[in-house]
Write a structure and sequence with these properties.
Quinone Oxidoreductase, Chain A, domain 1, 15 strands, alpha/beta, binds NADP nicotinamide-adenine-dinucleotide phosphate, 24% strand, 2 domains, Rossmann fold, 12 helices, seven-stranded mixed beta sheet
């Protein structure tokens, strides 16, 4: 290869990287050092494995508040599949430093505000405020299953008076996943396009992501919503805004769903090929792969991997549809929009079950079966967590 060709290849690669590969913002967040003296209750694991590696400690170190951070007394947190995937798999320690506190979703009360946090902002954070946040997923040993979290102020949102801290804790990660996935769809809508009700297929509609995405697509984006679920959950899905439910156990979705504008797919390891090889998406439609993998520990937790990458390259090169990978990132501005939707009761938090923090193993064992309806919440402080008059959680 001549020097000229080499330079051309480097320039093309740099352009492709810049154009298509977003460096995760998680790499920008620097986790706090542990405090020398202050301790807290926290769930920790020091090695990867099943739920037996989770231990509740009464005197784990607290995170040391940094100038740009807010220290939150956590009243409730919720759990997500990414927590147990990071725990079960031997991921490198720079991704999951140990001892690790699992969990990303918190709601609680501000107990300290760092000296560098902007107190002049429109809605400043003050001690005593009720807040929620999604914590960074990578790079940090600090997670949600603890009495305190120190979190960058720009990742935090206020929780309105009508919303319980249990409901606020249920939503951050799944809601941000939905907003970030549908953002690309929303912005690609041409202003000159004739108004038309667009249709979305939400796979795994009864799950944490699905139960939020159905409501957001229906009540905020005004879309027609189709979702997959087992038959006993159909009525529930209709109650949160679903127009059509496909019983995935008895009815192949690709035989009954055609020409939708968007597919949001948390079951991509099973459904991606079936979706792309059929007429589920209309030409020009948008496939959103949220990189789902099996709930059961099957050794194939990377989902479709190379096949997905190939599908993505094909779609980028030839069409006929758009294809995006979505990996959620914390975002305080988007989370505030979600908390405001909860406050106005435009959407509701679907909480399947709550567990005490001490019962964290049972909580994960329940979620890891893959049949939760909505979210599983850990209650850290029982007395205060249910206050807020707009609690509309579902109990299974
Ligand atoms: N990339 C990202 O940033 C991102 C963000 C969030 C989540 N995710 C991934 O997305 C996936 C889903 O997350 P989640 O929080 O929604 O999980 P979840 O709450 O555990 O989902 C459980 C739901 O999935 C349904 N389900 C199971 N198998 C199904 C199938 N074959 N077809 C249709 N529905 C099925 C179940 O319904 P039935 O009981 O009726 O079977 C249950 O209601 C996970 O793999 C997660 O890691 C990725």
């Amino acid at each position: 290869m001549t020097a000229k060709t080499f330079a051309l290849v480097v320039i093309c690669l740099a352009w492709a990287l810049h154009r298509y590969v977003r460096i995760p913002r998680s790499l920008e967040w620097r986790p706090s050092p542990p405090s020398d003296s202050a301790t807290m209750k926290a769930v920790l694991y020091t090695e990867h494995g099943d739920t037996s590696v989770l231990r509740v400690h009464q005197d784990a170190p607290q995170p040391q508040l940094q100038p740009h951070q807010i220290l939150v007394h956590v009243y409730a947190s919720s759990i997500n599949p990414c927590d147990y995937k990071n725990r079960r798999n031997e991921v490198p320690s720079w991704v999951v430093p140990k001892p690790k506190i699992p969990g990303a979703d918190v709601a609680g009360v501000v107990v300290a505000v760092g000296s560098g946090v902007d107190v002049e902002r429109v809605r400043p954070f003050r001690v005593g405020d009720r807040v929620a946040a999604m914590l960074p997923l990578l790079h940090s040993r600090w997670g949600a299953a603890a009495s305190y979290v120190a979190v960058d102020a720009n990742l935090v949102a206020h929780v309105g008076p009508r919303v319980s801290l249990r409901d606020a804790a249920a939503l951050p990660l799944v809601a941000l996943t939905t907003l970030q996935a549908l953002e690309s769809v929303t912005v690609s809508q041409s202003p000159t396009e004739a108004p038309r009700k667009r249709t979305i297929l939400v796979q795994a509609g009864a799950g944490g992501v699905g139960s939020f995405a159905i409501q957001y697509a229906k009540h905020v984006l005004q879309m027609r919503v189709i979702a997959t679920a087992s038959s006993e959950k159909a009525e529930f899905l209709r109650s949160i805004g679903c127009d059509q439910v496909v019983d995935y156990r008895n009815e192949p979705f690709e035989e009954v769903v055609h020409n939708v504008d968007v597919v949001l797919d948390p079951v991509s390891w099973l459904y991606e090929d079936r979706t792309l090889a059929s007429e589920v998406l209309r030409p020009g439609g948008h496939y959103l792969n949220i990189v789902g993998s099996d709930w059961a520990f099957s050794g194939t937790e990377q989902g479709n991997g190379p096949r997905s990458l190939w599908n993505w390259i094909k779609a980028k090169t030839f069409g006929p549809f758009k294809y995006s990978f979505v990996v959620v990132e914390p975002n305080g501005i988007q989370l505030q929009a979600v908390m405001d939707l909860l406050e106005s009761a435009t959407i509701r938090a679907v909480v399947d079950r709550t567990f005490a923090l001490d019962d964290v193993r049972e909580a994960y064992e329940y979620l890891e079966k893959g049949h939760a309806t909505g979210k599983v919440v850990l209650v850290h402080e029982k007395e205060e967590v249910e206050s807020g008059s707009a609690t509309v959680a579902e109990e299974s």
